[in-house]
Each structure stands twice: as C-alpha cells, then as structure tokens.
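Box 4.2: Ligand-aware structure prediction
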Amino acid sequence: MLKVLGAVAAAPLRPGLAVGAAQLLGGCGGGSSDVQVPDPVVNPEGAPLRIPPVLSPSSVTATEDAYVLSVDESEIEILPGKSTRILGFDGMTPGPTIRARAGRPVTVSLLNNLPQTTLGGAPGEVVIHLHGGHVPSSDDGFPTDIVPPGTSRTYTYPNNQLPATLWYHDHLMDFTGPHVWFGLAGLYLITDDHEESLGLPNGAHEVPLVIQDRNIDGDGNLVYTGNRNGEVGNTLLVNGTVEPYLRVANRKYRFRVLNGSNMRMYRIALSNGAPFQVLGMEGGLLPSPVTVASITLTPAERVDIVIDFSSIPVGESLVLRNLLGSGDTADIVRFDVDRMETDDSQVPAVLRPIEQLAMSDVVQTRSFTLSGGMMGMQGMMGGLWTINGNPFDPDRVDADPKLGTVEIWEFQNMSMMDHPVHVHQTMFQILEINRGPPPATHAGWKDTVNVPAMGSARIIMQFPDYAGRYVFHCHVLEHEDHVMMARFDVIP
Ligand code: C2O
Ligand code: CU
Ligand code: CU
C-alpha cells in the first residue's frame, strides 16, 4: 500500500484555504524538505541508465503519425527488489519518447485508466500538455480541459515549429505537482532534415537525461508532501534510474537534458571540470555552439549538450555532477568509458541562424509582479503565490495579445524564491535578466525564464498562428498548483 506523508488535499486548492505546517523557504535551488525520508539503500555500483523507449506509431499515413498512449497506475522497480507505485504513461516513467518531424502532425490518443482518486489523494482526471509545443488552444492542455477517468481523447500536435527538445506532462489544475511527481512526464523530440544533416552525434550516441528528484521511503514508495514552497526530493532519478551509470565509447555524445523536477534546480558540470558544448535550450539550436564549464537548469528548462569523452582513457569514469547538490543529489549520472570507437560525428561551428525579434515590432509591453509565499514581501495571500496579486482563475483573462503581434513581458519577482516562468503558445527571446543581457547559452529560443528572487526578467515574443486561451505560470509545480498561473487569450 502506498504511504504518502501529508496527502494532497482532495478538494481543489483554491484561495482562502489555510496554510499547512510551517515550511522552510529554500533559497535558489535545493531547499529542504520538512519531512525526514529514510535514505534508500542502493546498489553501490549503481544501475544501468534506463533509456525510455521511442514510442511506435499506431498508424502512419501520408500526412501524419498517430500514437496511442495510456495513463495508468502501475508498479515498477526503482529501488532494487522494491516495488514502487507510479502514475505511468504506458506503465512507465518517464513515459516513452515521442519522435516527431517539423511540419508533420502527430496525434496522440490518450486513454485515461486512472481511478477517480489516485496516488497522493489527487484526482484521477488528467490534462496533457505538450511543453514547448506550438499547439492550437483546444489541444494545448488548458488546466481545466480534463480527460476524466475511464475516457480518452485525441490531441493533435501540428509540429509547425523549429526542431527542439519538448516534453509532455500532466497539467491538471491544482494537481500538476503530485501528478508529475508520481510519474506523468515524458520527452517529445522534434527534428528536421537540416538538423540531421549537421552530423551531430545520433542514434545510440544521442541520449536523453530526464533529471528528477524524488523522496522514496525504505519500502520503495514515492512520498509527496505537498510543500507549497516546492516539493524537493533527497534522491536523484535520471530517466527513472537511481544512481545511474552509462557505458560510453571514447567519443562525442549528445545529451538532451531536461530538468523535470517539481522545484529543484541543478547546475550541471563534469567531475573533471572539462567544458562541454551547448547546442541549444528549450527552443532548439543556437546559431553556434557555446562552450561552458557548467549550466544551471531551473524546472522545465532543457539543454542540448555534447560531451566529448575522447580524452578519457578506457576504464575510467566521468560523472555529470550537480554543483547545487550534496549527498545523494550531487551526482547525476556516471559515464563509464569502456571502449574505443571511431567518431564520425561533428559539432559544426554553424548550427542554425536565429531570427531576432525586433524591438521596432513591439506593440505592447506588459508587466507582471510575482509575489507571495509564507514570507512574501507583497500580495501575500495565505501561503499562495500570485501574479499581479491574483490567484489563477481559469475564467479571468490576464493578458490579451493580438494574434501575430510582438510583445514584451516584464516580470518583477517580489518574493524570496526564484520563479521559472513558462509561457505557452510560443517561444520567446530573453532581453534581460536582472537588467543585464542573458548568457550566450540563453540567447536563443526559450519557453522558460528564471526570474530570480527579488529580481526581474524581460522577454520578447510573437503569438503566431493560433488564437484562443493559454496560460503562463511558474514552473515550480507547487507554486503553479498554489495558483501562480494566469490565463492569456490570443485575440484573433
Ligand atoms: Cu510544462 Cu504549462 O507547463
Ligand atoms: Cu508549456
Ligand atoms: Cu515559483
């Protein structure tokens, strides 16, 4: 039987609810859980890194690829010899990877097999959102567009966008945190002929790394406390694997790294301090690769990197570390170099030019203040997180950009925690973070921008193709669930 400490309230968490037990305000990154969870005993050699399978289409026509995906409560093995109950896509977490091509639509028929009430006391309703997708409003997974238990619906994703590392996850209003924590997330990769012509490492040399922290008790149960400051785990899972290792050849590999955690941030770096190359972030390839020694990923951010193992002697290992972690959250994945291989891949100096959005095209600037929390400086609403002082209301429109126009959005963080803000419908470019230009790694297309505690960010974006209702929100999932989200409508 699943044990959940401090189960999630089954009633919707709307404004006015009293705050639970006192919670610690973590600074940026890390933070601490207020529940002691026994440290899982794991095989000291580690476990082979799981690679989520690529989902096979149920049908392929001249114009589209159709997929079927189910959502179930399932039992899997995360700790050796222990069974863990999860919310899985096709029985697994992360779910199978969907591979799409730019310009070729994908349909996903989702079958919701959950009971009325599921793990953590959360409702069995689900909403699927393709994060990073440029998707019509009706298929975007608005937080109240539910798929009830025992029903199915088909989502259509046009993929008329640049190739990029996307992910799909649950987006149910008030319960995205527990649904994702218990497993409802997977990768969705879009590619095209140009990207394939670049000669980047591919096939077995292109590996996803979905990084998620979790609390797992000694019996193997996932423990979700519902911490409104953000749920933090004491163990890292990569693609669902605890203490993973990957056997690699002494050559270049491409890694699609997703911070799929509810709240935790990572600063990834190699244990020997060697630099690696950044090809792009959420919205696809940068104009040229950027070489860094480390990069920070807030929740929902992705980074596409190339690590070159050619200088590592066979028989030695390199660890991808989290410089913001300690103990079981310091090591992300160990790479064991176990063989020689010739490397036919390359990282060209030119990847894909980026069209800069022009300030002269801006028709509107909007300002949003992010506040709240237990010790919020302004707009404190009993432990809620707010945007311009308002809790999320699916019926209130907080911004109304016109279809096809360019806008600047400014975010001012008046709280003591970072808020990685994610905007649906489109990709944006970062103009400023804390009044300075973004680093070169963050200068391409993005869908999530971290607004630092007591800091600010400015982004520029266009809203093409699709009118209708969308949301933007903090991607710390408990901030989102505790209402740091707003509806915006793209007006035809
Ligand atoms: Cu990744 Cu609105 O979500
Ligand atoms: Cu999204
Ligand atoms: Cu937040």
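In the box above, the bound molecule is copper (II) ion. The longest strand covers residues 65-76.
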